[in-house]
Backbone:
């Protein structure tokens, strides 16, 4: 184990008064030195590694559900309603709050549905056109039904539906971005 | 000079097989280890000699924990406190590592004082060891410098006000005092430049000095040789020597193990607190230094007015000069403490003074009702801050966006128009800019409202090429939009 032990030429084997060879006692001490150093190193290494890998094990960036208002407010919708939600995005020790527009609308069965206002074509914010009773994108003229289904324009799919939940009578939505210019809805980021 | 293969092989006494032999053939590590470990100690290994390597161990631990803390720390007045709060409250083992670094600094001072005392009491500075002593004195000063600069970095109330007092004390130095203070602070007041300066000193400058001086100190120690017990001749050792390895190594390791266990338990059971962020406007806050600066803190209280030069310059100056000059003044071969009454009396006097001053300071704080109450309040505030969960800092981009809601109604209307017409699709939320179009933040500094109106009505060729359409809104809406762009700063 310890190749650098003093060789016999410089340290001739001597014996203590009781006859124990000093060389043996030395080996015993060497074991302690190596064990001791290893233990000290390991004790320090454990918290250091846990500290360094923290961002890999814990989600340091996350999106939270945002409240849209009491469910009752949306029971008698006649057309899509715009709501601005604040999205808190946590990035390590900082967070940023951005605002996103979503539409609360109804699907063909009359169930509530929340659409993102981000156009599935190139990401412009799509406004609701009261006169035409359609969503009309100002950028490239894509149009969508009140429930978000595709009508016309360059987009390859209809407007995207967001995940919703109801908590304490509040309609909550989880905002997400979806890949643009593809026919299937695919979460990004 | 004749040079043979045999000479080269002599660096390792016996040819060895295996990995160790392979490495040794290429590095000569056996010889290095032999030199490192087979230092003869006159009179044999003793527990009295363990403090030097104890210091080296804590220093290495400080370097490692310091480097790891820098994974999350940001040295600026805006973020320093948040990032330390993040380390303390959010990151796994963060509180433990920060405590280890903070208590490690205290442990360093304790072991340093023990090492110094042992050297002094054993007369181990004698016998051509002047430079060894001087390098040690400089290391002492550098380590106190590390403690002083590191203390500010968390930027909480305690750190801010203690450093405000510490840097003010420097201004008491006649003639150049004010300049020293400004140099340390990076201006007349404490601020983000102070953090930068302290950070650079703490992380780059002083450590560089410590690394090179530790190397010098160890080299000079090996050159002079271990001094051995007090009845040993400091010039020519006569007692039977024992090698450093293994018994002295084991003794040194036992101190290291003791330090680790003590520090580990302390960090686990009583983690270092973080107070609320520094609030320079708080006039009530009573700053108190870390324990090792208490004697100086108390001592400085006694000197006012015209006498302060004596207290701040003359007395400490004489003391420091005496310490530095010690091996030049005390040149005899006598090392037994009981035969060195002057040296021992001075040591006892200085030690008692230091303890006395520190205790006096504690006593005064406890018996002044107003001070005691305020200190208790400060402690309660720290406790309360520690009990709240970590709150991430709001990034400035989102602040700018959020502020508009509160500001001028015209700008708020502009923001609604900006969003309703999907301007944010290209110019980004709050006008921060995207890949598709430039940021609008700061545009108002380049263009007057009239110019903006003109650009809205008739975009430049470059703007049109980028996809910007002319804006043909009602005049009121255009005004609101201009007000909004103006508000983006």
Residues:
């Amino acid at each position: 184990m310890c190749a650098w032990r003093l060789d016999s030429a410089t340290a001739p084997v001597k014996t203590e008064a009781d006859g124990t060879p000093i060389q043996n006692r030395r080996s015993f001490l060497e074991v302690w030195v190596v064990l001791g150093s290893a233990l000290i190193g390991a004790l320090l290494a454990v918290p250091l590694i846990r500290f360094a890998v923290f961002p890999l094990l814990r989600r340091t960036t996350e999106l939270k559900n945002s409240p849209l208002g009491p469910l009752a407010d949306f029971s008698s919708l006649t057309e899509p309603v715009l709501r601005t939600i604040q999205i808190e995005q946590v990035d390590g020790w900082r967070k940023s709050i951005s605002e996103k527009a979503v539409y609360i609308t109804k699907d063909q069965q009359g169930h509530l549905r929340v659409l993102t206002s981000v156009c599935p074509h190139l990401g412009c914010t799509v406004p609701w056109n009261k006169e035409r009773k359609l969503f009309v994108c100002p950028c490239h003229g894509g149009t969508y039904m009140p429930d978000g289904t595709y009508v016309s324009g360059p987009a390859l799919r209809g407007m995207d539906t967001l995940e919703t939940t109801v908590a304490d009578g509040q309609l909550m939505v989880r905002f997400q971005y979806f890949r643009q210019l593809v026919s299937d809805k695919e979460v990004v980021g | 000079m004749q040079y043979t293969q045999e000479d080269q092989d002599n660096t390792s006494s016996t040819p060895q097989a295996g990995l160790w032999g392979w490495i040794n053939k290429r590095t000569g590590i056996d010889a290095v280890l032999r030199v490192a470990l087979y230092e003869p100690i006159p009179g044999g290994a003793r527990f009295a000699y363990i403090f030097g390597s104890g210091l080296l161990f804590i220093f290495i631990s400080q370097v490692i924990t310091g480097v790891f803390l820098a994974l999350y720390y940001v040295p600026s007045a805006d973020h320093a406190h948040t990032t330390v709060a993040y380390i303390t409250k959010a990151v796994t083992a963060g509180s433990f590592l920060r405590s280890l670094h903070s208590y490690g600094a205290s442990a360093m001072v304790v072991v340093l004082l023990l090492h110094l005392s042992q050297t002094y009491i054993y007369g181990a500075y004698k016998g051509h060891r002047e430079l060894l002593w001087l390098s040690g004195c400089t290391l002492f000063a550098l380590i106190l410098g590390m403690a002083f600069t590191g203390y500010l970095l968390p930027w909480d109330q305690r750190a801010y006000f203690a450093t405000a007092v510490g840097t003010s004390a420097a201004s008491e130095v006649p003639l150049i005092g004010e300049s020293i203070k400004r140099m340390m602070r990076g201006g007349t007041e404490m601020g983000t430049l102070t953090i930068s300066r302290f950070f650079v000193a703490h992380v780059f400058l002083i450590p560089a000095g410590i690394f090179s001086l530790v190397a010098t100190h160890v080299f000079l120690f090996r050159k002079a040789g271990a001094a051995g017990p007090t009845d040993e001749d400091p010039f020519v050792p006569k007692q039977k020597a024992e090698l450093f390895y293994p018994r002295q190594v084991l003794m040194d390791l036992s101190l290291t193990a003791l330090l680790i266990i003590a520090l580990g338990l302390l960090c686990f059971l009583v983690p270092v607190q973080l107070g609320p962020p520094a609030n320079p406007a708080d006039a009530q806050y009573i700053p108190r230094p870390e324990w090792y600066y208490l004697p100086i803190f108390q001592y400085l209280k006694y000197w006012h007015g015209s006498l302060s030069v004596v207290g701040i310059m003359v007395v400490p100056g004489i003391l420091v000069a005496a310490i530095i000059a010690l091996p030049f003044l005390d040149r005899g071969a006598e090392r037994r403490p009981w035969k060195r009454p002057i040296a021992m009396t001075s040591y006892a006097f200085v030690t008692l003074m230091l303890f006395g001053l520190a205790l006096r300071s504690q006593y005064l704080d406890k018996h002044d009702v107003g001070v005691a109450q305020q200190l208790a309040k400060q402690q309660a505030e720290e406790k309360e801050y520690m009990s709240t969960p970590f709150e991430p800092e709001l990034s400035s981009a989102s602040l700018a966006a959020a502020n508009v809601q509160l500001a001028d109604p015209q700008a708020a209307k502009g923001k609604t128009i900006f969003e309703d017409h999907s301007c944010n699709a290209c110019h980004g939320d709050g006008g921060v800019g995207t890949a598709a179009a430039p940021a609008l933040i700061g545009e108002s500094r380049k263009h007057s409202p009239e110019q903006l109106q003109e650009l809205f009505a008739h975009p430049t060729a470059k703007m049109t090429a980028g996809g910007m359409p002319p804006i043909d809104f009602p005049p009121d809406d255009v005004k609101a939009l201009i007000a909004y762009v103006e508000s983006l700063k």
